[in-house]
Records
---
Amino acid sequence: MALVTDSFRLDGSFRRYDRVVIGGSPLRLFKLSAAGQRVVEAIEHGLPLPTGHGKLTDRLVDAGAIHPVPSASPFTAADVTIVVPAFNAQPGTLGPHGEVIVVDDAGTPPLVAKPGQRVIRLATNQGPGAARNAGLAEVTTPLVAFVDTDVDLDDDWLDALLPHFGDAQVALVAPRVASTDAASTLAQYEYARSPLDLGPEPGRIAPGTRISYVPAAALLARADALRAIGGFDETLRTGEDVDMVWRLVDAGHRCRYEPASTVHHYPRSSVTAWARQRFSYGRSAAALDRRHPGAVAPLRMSGWSAAVWALVLARRPIVAFAVALGTIVALRRKLDELPPEESARLAGLGHLYAGRQVASAITRVWWPLALIVAVFVRRSRLPLAAAATIPPLLDWLERRGPLDPVRYTALRIADDVAYGTGAWKGAIEQRSVGALAPKFTNWPGKAGG
């Protein structure tokens, strides 16, 4: 089905060489026909698109190489019901809406409805998934927004989200969830690196892509599409929002991330509560892997990049360099449609990004194994120490948040340790190591155009 828009923007990964386009997440290569080249040139220069562009633009959108910029919506704020799952907390500031349904998940004391709100009380505490489903059952509008109690909405938060529903395949659109700016060290860390904040660039949402999930802290969806997949999985206390989005994708729907709309989330009030949250995120990974095998892999890279960095960690830099050089030559032959310097750039950057992923996986998920190796293998200590400290420092340099590098690095390491501890706990409970295992890929994929 063609998108109902004639305006698109290029993804940051997009590069074109005559009739060859590279872009998207994961990276893909498109060979364009003469007609396809005219379509892409029109997008690049902001010109009217040729008739019949829909097949190509659909494929580029679904690959994440371009993004639609819809201008009109078939819906208004009156078509949206806001559902707020609540447990011992009142809803935050809410923007325009048709109705607000607050689901009291057996909190103490019972919530009292505020003007313009309706409260549904559950007899026993059942978790956020069940609370959202209870609210969804009462929704009569075509769209439903789920908003957590620790989120504030601006009056215009729907403006950039609603137009995406002009595409009948779009079932869900999520805004950017930015952490509120505050003075505490923890709040400053969250402001720079919250797991709810997925950044300033738009994109499709799908497992294994740059935006593999969105939180249900705030999102907008078609009510009927959610009902068709059974809503949220009530057996999941954490990760139920990730699972729901992935089931929408599996059902053939499009899900979009639109940071032109930004809502604000309050961080946890204490380090203990913050660490408990990160632990619960990690713990949910194994249950998600059982439902979506491979989708939560802590590391995705080509087998050749894995070999390069395994040699680096083994302190065999010369052999690692030789293997990396060999892959550059091999990729040059595979991508003979590209200039030699571009295939070399892709291979080189691929290895560098893979190294950062390896370091992140070591400190975030594999740190118990890394700790054991460091104790018994002396020569591993230097590369493992570098893996633990260099990525947080690079992170700090890129984000330039209000924290100094020492406090930022300390909290980043604590963040990773809490998540990784939860990931191992979940793996033991589920009796599955799927969420701890790497996934090897072959890149870039090829597609026609």
Note: The mean pLDDT is 90.
---
Amino acid sequence: MPGTPVVMRANPNKDGPGKQVRILDVTTQDGAIHPFYESNTRNRTLAEAKSLEGHWAPNRAALGAAFGAMARFPITPEARTAQQKLTADGLCFVEPVPFLAVLDEMRSIQISKNEVVLHFENSGDHVLRTVHMNSKHPANVKPSRHGHSIGHWEGDTLVIDTTDYEPNASGLGGNVPSSARKHTVERLTLTPERTRLRYEITVEDPVYLTKPATLTQQWDYRPDLKFSPRSEACDNEVAARYRASLPK
């Protein structure tokens, strides 16, 4: 429909500084990729996954579409005010989902009977999320950055319910804070061609969202990728100098 936000990939004219591009594809906010020409599907030839297990990574277009979706989250005036202060910009910490999940970096999924482990690479940092299957959230869980996750299967879809997040200065992404009342439900399903995974997250936070927000993305199956070596920890002194250079 007119006005629908999309991310477009295109090749510029190779015969000089012309005024034309050849559109390759567009990615819509539901994570779907729409090639303009049949030949362009060769640009994204992917292997078929047997299950959700394996190595995955969103492509750059999927990242752009997800950032656009997060920018349109229905945040409260309080959240808007906090966002403009850039409180989290340059801090040495890894942001939780939804931001963590949509980055175009490597992640893996390991599935066993009692738990699912999601391993995210984040600019040299590594985050492990353990999903306790067919369980309940225990009482008196100590809040943490990535919360406490339980999961179950709905057919071939993995459903992850996470609570007990600690307040975070960018817990809703892009310097939008989240409160201790943040609650997320993630749904992971193979696409029909089995070359991608459909990732959907619904976020609730009555303090900073006027209503639940939903974001959908697709992750490419990338068995060819490996995790990068862990880098040195973020240097708080260097980060402080960066923060001091930001416009007031």
Note: The first strand starts at residue 6 and ends at 12.
